[in-house]
Design brief:
The complex is a heterodimer of chains A (140) and B (101). By secondary structure, chain A is of the alpha+beta class. Helix content of chain A is 45%, strand content 19%. Chain A is built from 2 helices and 4 strands; from the N terminus they run H-E-E-E-E-H. The N and C termini of chain B lie far apart (59 Å). Classes of the chains: A alpha+beta (140), B mainly alpha (101).
């Protein structure tokens, strides 16, 4: 496996974290959305990241894998029920269903996403440095 | 479980591991010029790839910034490797040319 393959693994991690941040942005933007596309309140979106194996060449590297977002799923937490009969979206009993988005959880997700992205960028930097050092072996 | 085939040890041309450094088609028995041309094509492909990424980003297409930047880094590494090989080749040539007979 060359440095280019290392970079492609890191790129897959960066893309996965970018999708996670997109999900967090969507969840935060719709934290109080009471009507979604299917008529109910907005459902918290949860990106599912799976490792995708790839033959990187040698026996030692067969367990190395890319990270890939395979699905953005609906979270199954219950909706928040608020009694507000004057709300246009209230049901027959006067309850309004608010999304199952917890802002604090989303903030924590956002921080871990940002830090993981940074870590991946550091991996890119290190890979570049190692490649440059390796190339400098060849210089007279 | 996927077990890759073991590469033959004595296939003629010297190989630096299971794959050539920049993914060049290292055909056994090919001369240095052909190998260098193959490597050059790979470097050129990396440059064009980086160029495409830059153009897509400038055009506002929905590409990831990091994909473009990693494309640039790949092109940079490939080019530096190629330049380093070229320098060594030219140096060896000059050494031989300056040899007093």
């Amino acid at each position: 496996m060359g440095f280019i393959d290392t970079l492609s693994i890191t790129a897959s991690g960066l893309t996965a974290e970018r999708v996670r941040l997109q999900a967090v942005a969507s969840n935060l933007a719709n934290a109080r959305t009471t009507r979604g596309v299917d008529g109910g309140p907005y459902v918290r979106q949860l990106p599912l990241i799976e490792s995708v194996g790839r033959d990187f060449g040698t026996e030692l590297e067969r367990n190395l894998a890319w990270a890939q977002v395979t699905e953005v799923a609906n979270a199954t937490d219950p909706f928040e029920l608020v009694y507000d009969p004057s709300h246009p979206h209230a049901d027959d009993q006067g309850y309004v269903k608010y999304p199952n988005v917890n802002i604090l959880n989303e903030m924590v997700d956002m921080m871990t996403t940002a830090r993981t992205y940074e870590a991946n960028v550091n991996a890119v930097e290190t890979t570049k440095q190692m490649a440059h050092v390796a190339i400098s072996i060849g210089r007279g | 479980m996927n077990i890759p085939a073991i590469s033959p040890l004595l296939s003629g041309a010297p190989s630096f591991g299971p794959r050539a450094p920049i993914g060049a088609a290292a055909t056994p028995g090919a001369d240095f010029g052909a190998q260098l041309a193959g490597a050059l094509r790979e470097v050129n492909a990396a440059q064009l790839n980086a160029d495409d990424g830059l153009r897509a980003m400038a055009a506002g297409e929905g590409t990831d910034i990091h994909q473009t930047m990693i494309g640039l880094a790949e092109a940079d590494i490939a080019l530096r490797t190629m330049v380093s090989v070229r320098d060594r080749a030219v140096e060896a040539y000059q050494t031989i040319m300056n040899m007093s007979i």
